[in-house]
Write a structure and sequence with these properties.
The chain is an alpha/beta fold and 294 residues long. The protein is 40% helix and 20% strand. The longest helix has 25 residues.
Length: 294
Amino acid sequence: MARNLDITSLRSFIAVADSGGVTKAAGYLHLTQSAVSMQLKRLEETLDVSLLDRSNRSVSLTAEGEQLLSYARRMLALNDEAYTRLTAKEFEGEITLGVPHDIIYPYIPPILRAFAADFPRVQIRLVSAPTTRLRDMFGRGECDVILTTEEQAGPGGEALVTLPLIWIGALDGTAWKQDPLPVAFCQNCIFRSGVLKRLDEADLDWDMVVDSDLDNAVEAVVSADLAVHAAITGVYPRQTGPVAHGGRLPDPGQTRIVLYLQAKEDPMLVALRDMIRDAYLSEWTPREASQLTA
């Protein structure tokens, strides 16, 4: 049957080896000399070896003691790491931030980094989900702060900027020339109904070529030049870009970036709100972002 080495005894053994004697080790460990000696004796009895050479006035390690010292240091380091990790109170709070996947870049990573620098003991959790789902989560109190993409800000929401939507497709693609127009939208895409309505108003036939609630499915068919999609200007998946359709396709509309804050008196949430505001407003003001062209 396996025998277990006592961590406390190993700690005393290391202290003796490092200090060169039981007396100094006892002072370092805030123990009596007899307590340290008893722990060393217990360790030697467990292993059935002599760990210290006591033939001279100074204490030295035997060959077995030198071998154990290497193991003991690693065992003690791992013990202390595990104990610290599981018992330390590293955070003084937690904030859940919800952001749709298509507006995470380029603003959210530097915002998270700046917030972590200012509040190192606050844990921030990022949730990426469509706007409709984020609004539901916010209503249930599951998110402290959310950013959404909506035509109009809802109750309590603050519209930060208004950004145009543009048609995107595969780089050098030709899907936009097809009739009917192949389009790709997630089932829960906030832009879907408005863009399709604009296609209908323009008497442009269209065909939905993807039926999925996953954004990467849309990105796959668009980058493969099997469909076009409407996205916020400047936010395009890899291998896609603006479609130079020359007016063949109708204006897909615009969207607002809206900020919702759960507790406006919480100083940490206020700080995060200000960072988000600054990131967007420093980029788009004083001119209206809605006047940008693709």
